[in-house]
Amino acid sequence: MVEGKFSEIRGWAAFEPGIKVKPWSYRPRPLGDNDVEIKIEYSGICGSDLHTIKGEWGPPQLPAIVGHEIVGRVVAKGDGVAGLAEGDLVGVGAQVYACLKDSCETCSRGLDPHCPDMVFTYNDNYADGKQAQGGYSEAVRVDANYTFKIPAAIDPVHAPPLMCAGVTVFCPMLKHDIKQGDRVGIVGIGGLGHLAIQFASALGAHVTAFSHSPNKREECMALGATAFVDTSDEKQVEGARQSLTHLFVASNAPANQYNEFIKWMKIGGAIVMLAVPPGKMSFSASEFTGSEVSLSGSLVGGVKTLRKTLDFAAEHGIKPIIERFPMDQVNEALARVDSGRIRYRAVLENPRD
Ligand SMILES: [Zn+2]
Ligand SMILES: [Zn+2]
After folding, report:
1. What CATH superfamily is the domain 9-154+319-349?
2. What sections of the protein cross the membrane (predicted)?
3. What is the pLDDT of residue 277?
4. Which ligand is nearest to the CA of 135?
């Protein structure tokens, strides 16, 4: 068996529910035949990281190193790994394992994020019981199938947000076959939304950005939006009625706002939830029979979609707007994300040797 370079991995872990993390180290699981060890250069901060360590999605397994927008270099690989070499620049997203077998009902349909054996990048356990630890650290060991080469056209520091936020917005756009002639709305212009504008626009759609921050208008237009609706302005919201074929909800809008969103849809339109809003939704059936609007959710994308996301972003020059923080300022970065002040994604950087 191949030994990795790291017998101990140092990172920043949450020890109690909240947004504070502290230095901590753990002994990585043995480097399996199909595993790679990655020395991390950049790690994006995703909203899911905060939901997890705050305990908003249930009690996390502690200590927990979160972070699932990982970019770094391969420094070791198992004997069975083909197609990746030491020194390759690679990314890891929200998932680090699925069986990917033809006999698997979900994997065979390209739905590997729903594989019964799937392992999330953190706050989850491998089949051997070992806890998966994420990217706010110096290194990580993951399955080679979930290690993606970063195309040369993408600046490495711009790659982390594509690994989760990017694929999360692009996957349902592919599923809904977004194309020229579609009238796409994006609500919530943050980490997900500012990428969603770029992907939808590159697919040829007419894109309307919805935000309660009118000062984001110019930036949205520069990213490719064709129209902007200030949701704090009733008149503008009224003007958006029945204007959309698709609406991607990237904000943590309270569940009751969905009753308003339905009114923005053309007959037969589709609303897709990308974020996980707190609270329960309540609708009357007639809102759907009357509008023929459909409502669906989307998790992250699988192996194939992640590859497509990276290639499409490289081809169309899609890149996140980021704020950079040295890894040892992770607590400052988390506080800034938590307060909603980040424009639009935080990326942590490890020191170079
Ligand atoms: Zn994420
Ligand atoms: Zn499977």
Report:
1. Medium-chain alcohol dehydrogenases, catalytic domain (3.90.180.10)
2. none
3. 73
4. 1
